[in-house]
Model the fold of this input.
Amino acid sequence: MPQVFETMLQIRVYLFSFFLLSIVHFLQAQELVRVRGQVIDFEGKPIIGVNIVAAEAPEKGATTDANGYFTLMVSRNDKKLLFSHIGYEQKTMDIALENQSDVYLTNIQLFPKEWTIEGIDIHASAIQDNTETKSILTQENIIAQQGLSLAQMLQQMSGVSNLQTGSSIGKPVIHGLHSNRLLILQNGVRQEGQQWGLDHAPEIDLQTAGKIWVLKGAGAVRYGADAIAGVVLVEPAPIRLAPLNGYIATTTMSNGRQQQVAVGLEGQRKQFSWRVQSNGKYGGNVHTPNYYLANTGIREWNLSSQMRYESKKWHIELFYSRFATEIGIFSGAHIGNLSDLQGVIARGTPFIIKDFDYQLENPRQKVTHDLLKVSFAKHQSFELTYAFQYNKRQEFDIRRAGRSEIPALDMQLFTHSIEAAWKIKNIASGDLQMGVQLQNQQNSNIAGTGVKPLIPNYSTINIGAFALLRQLYSRWQWEAGLRYDYKMAQVLRFNASGEIENAHFLFDNFSASAGLMYVGAQKWTISTHLTTAWRPPAMNELFSEGLHHGVAAIELGDATLKSEKSYQWHIDFQMQWGRLSLETNAFLQYIDDFIFLQPLNEPILSVRGAFPSFAYRATRALLYGADVSANWQINKDFSLQTQMSLLQAKDLKNEKFLPLMPSNRYTAALHYEKKLGKALQFHTYYNATWVDKQYLVNETEDYMPPPEAYWLMEAGAGFTHQKYTINLTVYNLTNNIYREYMNRFRYYADEMGRNYVLRLYYKF
Amino acid sequence: MTTKQLFRLPHLFLWVAILFIAESCSTKSPEPTNEQELITKVLVNFVPVIAGNPTVTYSYSDLDGPGGNAPQIAASGSLKANISYSVSVQFLDESKTPTKTITTEVSEEAEEHQVFFVKGGTLNVSFNYSDKDKDNRPLGLLWTATTGAASTGTLRVVLKHKLDKAATGVASGDLTNAGGDTDVDVTFNVTIAN
Done:
């Protein structure tokens, strides 16, 4: 039955439909049926140029005329129609063609893409994101890249890079900004961990991800004022509507001899649906083309479950996810002082080279993250969410006298958050979203480490309220948003004379966004938006005082730092011209009171030798750049995808460059896809990436010059069947020896060598 | 959503919010850290093999650890030319009461540690290890030193942890291939006088 789905549910329903589609077999004979109908927008006005295809036979399609009408001949076996138009959410519709030979569909409504202007959404489908089928490929792509970390997966999108600490720790970076400036939402809940640490990877179980999107330089009004870089949204896939379904997936990597196994079960009975998933990862030392990296093994064990009760007007959802990992930190990067560091750099290879081993030694990290979420939603109008998060982080260092089993850093972070969000439709041909968010956080150091804590004990209360208004005028769409945040922090710590010091901080500010989009007659859209965001200084920026072992530097905080304030302008253009599609995004960002580590001239002398010293200082930062991606469907089987990410980052106050910013990157990929039968498809690709040298550095402020530019090749091939997928991917195909500027261990060792990865996925 | 609902729902939210704020939002009081990895003092004692000459002690002391106040570096006198000394190295943590002797921890894990003496300038002295670990490799808490003619220069004392004691040159006191983690790296000005 044709039915209009509420916008919020649309994506889920769509993905679900895709699942069904990929399962259903069509064995009956072809018989053609004429399907006609009219496509309208949510005001009831006809939409021109909507593409309509039968999901099972996408090569034959129709387009709506000036009045939104279309006629399409489909096979009697076809069960679904796909409606797509740039600027609108895609729609899937069930068609029940039993004995009719002519069907007229009514009430086919398309909704504009959710907050398209405020967020430039790019999907985890990476460079395929120009195709009309981007939502469909999303989950497939996550499956096809299983075993990679969040940052590694996102790195393939233009404008997104990976800040690494060795091979096992990666943080996503959007347009050069990361950590506390980047929000990650897991199933709608703002992920809270020790994000200030450059060597603290986000604690996300990717098995829970059915879809990942990235809002570049946007989302601050809706999700949190500190989204100066943007927002990463990790959303679960909808539960398949069948009594019992499941899957098993394995990933085997040659480099590091890593094995990952994932299983999932889900089911539905009347209005109740559920899902349980778990996965484990076990890996050992990885190797560069010439040597193994000692102590780079990884363990991960995750568990998640979801329960949902759905009535006609509302639903309740319970979600729990646990992430637990133990990661070895490359032994060759463990150094004592500046001369040790200079020694490794001069030598060019690590001092400690060991053979393959699964054993984890110190230094290592042990991290767990638990998330419990309860939400109640009235479809399309109101949602109330409560979430509890518990993050525990232990870091083990090399110590004397049997103290190595005692963590050198032992912290726990409790976060409670509540969000209420309203959506009011049909306000002067637009809609209004409003919400209130409350967050309470408590960080404490567990005593007994025998090491002075890096971050003090603190608690914070954060209150935020936002409103976003969107309106449509035929081909124009505009939106505006406003947010207010109030943040209170209490810090308890020992001062230099050993007394407990109680410090209070208050921060408050407004954030705003405004955007405008125009949907062109043929397939193109142009949009522009302005956003402001702000971020109070993090605890490490306020209170660091001492040696940061990983980087052999003394870092000094400054308790008088003010909040960072970001002003950003984006302009985006998307078009489809025959077989060519193009997506460009240019941005300009100015950040006042931008906090960064400024090198101090005098090294600090200690019993461990001399250490360079750095202080957290504020400057005026200017970042600008562009991301371009283009896709050319050469013929039915071949397609060429290219992308480019450019960035400049300047410290205006000191007339220098900002450190640790990604260099320019260019990618081209040739894909070949062939249908081998109704249910079987073959796919192969070859991907070449060229990463330029980072020239924009302050030469005297780094221990060694930035690494040279390098090529990185990747190739893959696989079969996709309705029930299973098999694919083999080779990363660093040419076994290239290179170092990456965005890897903090670039001083110590080369990057990983060739890696064969075999992925199997079977669903039932 | 109707107007009526709009007014009803915030109530629900408000109630939950009140409960939430009432919920513990106080900061946990920190417990003092009993710093375990601190070395606040390095002592190098030169005891003459032939009695009659004065004992010379070089000391490096930094009670508040890295940062804060600058370390105090001192020598109790000058070494005498052309004689032999037995030298001992001590690492102490004086921030504890009683003073913690880190040297004991180092000698207990002798296989993972080694002390290096690195001469600087034109210092006319030769050093030889006089202690060994279980693997028969030098440890460097005890040395013998033989001074030559009067001269001045520096003595750098380095304590390495988790180094590669089997690497080329390490057993003879060469730091180049040692790797590992530096726990101590201090330099003294040394004078050899007639």
About this structure: The CA atoms of residues 20 and 26 of chain B lie 13 Å apart. The helical segments of chain B are 3-22, 102-108. Chain B has two helices and eleven strands. Residues 3-22 of chain B form the longest helix (20 residues).
